[in-house]
Design a protein that fits this description.
Elements: H1 2-9, H2 16-39, H3 43-69, H4 75-106
Helix pairs in contact: 1-2, 2-3, 3-4
């Protein structure tokens, strides 16, 4: 998220309410929803938060691809960020599976 926000600071002014705003919010939402899900007491609330975080990570990937297409970042930089978001998504999926297994064991 911090790296994405640093990139957003360098975007042209006319992108302020377009891609920049969308990318800043989606990247921040990933970590916000992970934290919210993690601290939730109920299993379904946890999973809901992680599902939202996963969707926001996918949205962030899309915005990064937009920055690449508009040539605001290099292809290598964009590809690196997209791959890193894929790792985040895999981690979220693993955590969702762990929560589901834990929920099943409590029955």
């Amino acid at each position: 998220m911090i790296e994405v926000h640093k990139i957003c600071k360098k975007l042209p002014y006319h992108e302020r309410f377009k891609t920049k705003d969308q990318l800043e919010r989606s990247s921040a939402s990933v970590t916000d929803n992970i934290a919210e899900g993690h601290t939730s007491y109920y299993y379904q609330d946890k999973i809901k938060g992680f599902n939202v975080a996963r969707k926001e990570a996918g949205e962030s990937q899309n915005h990064i691809r937009t920055l690449q297409a508009k040539e605001y970042i290099t292809r290598d930089k964009g590809d690196d960020l997209v791959v890193r978001y894929e790792e985040v998504i895999r981690g979220i999926n693993g955590y969702i599976n762990w929560v589901r297994e834990k929920k099943g064991a409590k029955k």
